[in-house]
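FAQ

Q: What does a record look like?
A: Structure on top, sequence underneath. For example:
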């Protein structure tokens, strides 16, 4: 019998997250909102987590209006003491967490000599530390069927550096390091941990940049010559949480329109 004949059928590698419970932080807008909506469209039960309670409720309402299943939960990931409580609320409302997408974050401009540099540094460090709390709080859920999925949203800043935002840059390097470390630590339990590094995306963080400046930057720095859309990141996140992605862990998926491959 040939090796091909002995191979399992392709149908064994599922490409559906229908019925799974997905918790998405920072889900009231941008990449988080797009990810929550896409997951719900694919049949997942989605916990919409955001410090903007009204925004989280709006996204949850959007999902339900489209026929999906979602609940909104108010959560500031900088409030480490509340994370375990919220994960318990998610478990009670939707079921044990199968998928955790750590998307919430901030981006503060803080030159090294600025008076507010230390505050920016501490703000980024605190949020990254407390994002790790969300992983710990949901760990028993993720391990229970040996199929848990964690995706951390990092940035191309985690692969390089830009002047005047060193606290943000350090935090994103840390996200990638944590992703790789947890992939090794949790691998034996069947939980996969991966990171997505978006490049220039049209979100609230970039809304203050004039359109002509966006166009000039994208034309000069990216291979595709444009900014990306949140949904384009969401689809890459979806690809990492599929049951069929069980052998992908510790990966750093760059979704930047070719920014990091192009010479200046």
């Amino acid at each position: 019998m040939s090796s091909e004949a002995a191979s399992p059928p392709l149908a064994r590698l599922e490409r559906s997250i229908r019925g799974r419970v997905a918790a998405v932080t920072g889900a009231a807008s941008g990449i988080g909102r797009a990810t929550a909506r896409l997951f719900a469209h694919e049949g997942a039960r989605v916990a919409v987590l955001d410090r903007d309670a009204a925004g989280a409720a709006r996204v949850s309402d959007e999902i339900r209006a489209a026929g999906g299943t979602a609940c909104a939960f108010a959560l500031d990931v900088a409030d480490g003491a509340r994370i375990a409580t919220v994960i318990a609320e998610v478990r009670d409302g939707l079921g044990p967490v199968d998928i955790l997408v750590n998307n919430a974050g901030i981006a503060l401009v803080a030159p090294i000599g600025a008076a507010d540099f230390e505050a920016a540094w501490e703000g980024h460090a605190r949020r990254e530390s407390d994002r790790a709390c969300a992983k710990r709080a949901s760990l028993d859920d993720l391990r229970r069927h040996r199929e848990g999925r964690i995706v951390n949203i990092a940035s191309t800043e985690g692969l390089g550096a830009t002047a005047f935002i060193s606290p943000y840059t350090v935090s994103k390097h840390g996200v990638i390091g944590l992703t790789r470390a947890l992939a090794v630590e949790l691998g034996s339990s069947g939980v996969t941990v991966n990171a997505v590094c978006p490049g220039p995306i049209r979100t609230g963080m970039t809304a203050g940049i004039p359109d002509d400046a966006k166009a000039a930057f994208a034309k000069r720095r990216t291979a595709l010559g444009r900014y990306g859309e949140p949904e384009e990141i969401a689809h890459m996140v979806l690809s990492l949480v599929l049951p069929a992605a069980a052998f992908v862990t510790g990966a750093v998926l760059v979704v930047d329109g070719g920014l990091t491959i192009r010479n200046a």
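Q: Is there anything notable about this one?
A: The domain at 16-255 is CATH 3.40.50.720 (Rossmann fold).
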